[in-house]
Specification:
Number of strands: 5
Helix content: 25-40%
Structural class: alpha+beta
Strand order of the largest sheet: 1-2-3-4-5
Strand content: 25-35%
Number of helices: 4
Order of helices and strands: EHHEEEHEH
CATH class: Alpha Beta
Number of domains: 1
């Protein structure tokens, strides 16, 4: 499968509709997506084959209070079912790694569920490691 990874710094209605058609389960909104990518700390990459979106990732650049180098948090990565197992997810992560290297960003991190073995395989294949594997991190969620 031939696909192209593009950094999206603006999105028009046509591209947004392609994105939404590929991933209809989320409640995407054009205006919100435009506002999201207008923020320099927010980043969106799309993988496309022709006029069809086959994958995406969005991530955040995080500033640190302690003046250490910035970090990247991968918030969501998704590959359309018919495009899976073809290197799309790995290519999206590799593009983030390139962005980090080009911008002196110290680390990239991502959270996933222990049951999400597909995501874990992707991250390990792309070169991630599990720090403190014996001391599992725990995420808490506050309802507001």
């Amino acid at each position: 499968m031939d696909y192209e990874i593009s950094y999206i710094d603006e999105i028009d209605k046509s591209l947004f509709n392609q994105f939404k058609a590929a991933f209809p389960s989320s409640e995407w909104q054009l205006e919100h997506t435009q506002q999201f990518i207008a923020d320099d700390h927010n980043h969106l990459l799309l993988a496309k084959t022709g006029d069809e979106v086959c994958g995406f990732v969005y991530y955040y650049i995080l500033d640190r209070l302690d003046h250490r180098q910035k970090e990247i948090l991968i918030y969501e990565i998704e590959v359309a079912e018919k495009c899976r197992q073809q290197g799309v997810g790995t290519s999206l992560v590799e593009r983030i790694k390139e962005h980090a290297a080009e911008n002196q960003i110290s680390q990239i991190w991502v959270l996933t569920n222990e049951s999400n073995t597909a995501a874990q395989k992707l991250y390990l294949k792309a070169g991630a490691s599990i720090p403190n594997a014996e001391d599992k991190d725990v995420m808490f969620l506050f309802k507001v």
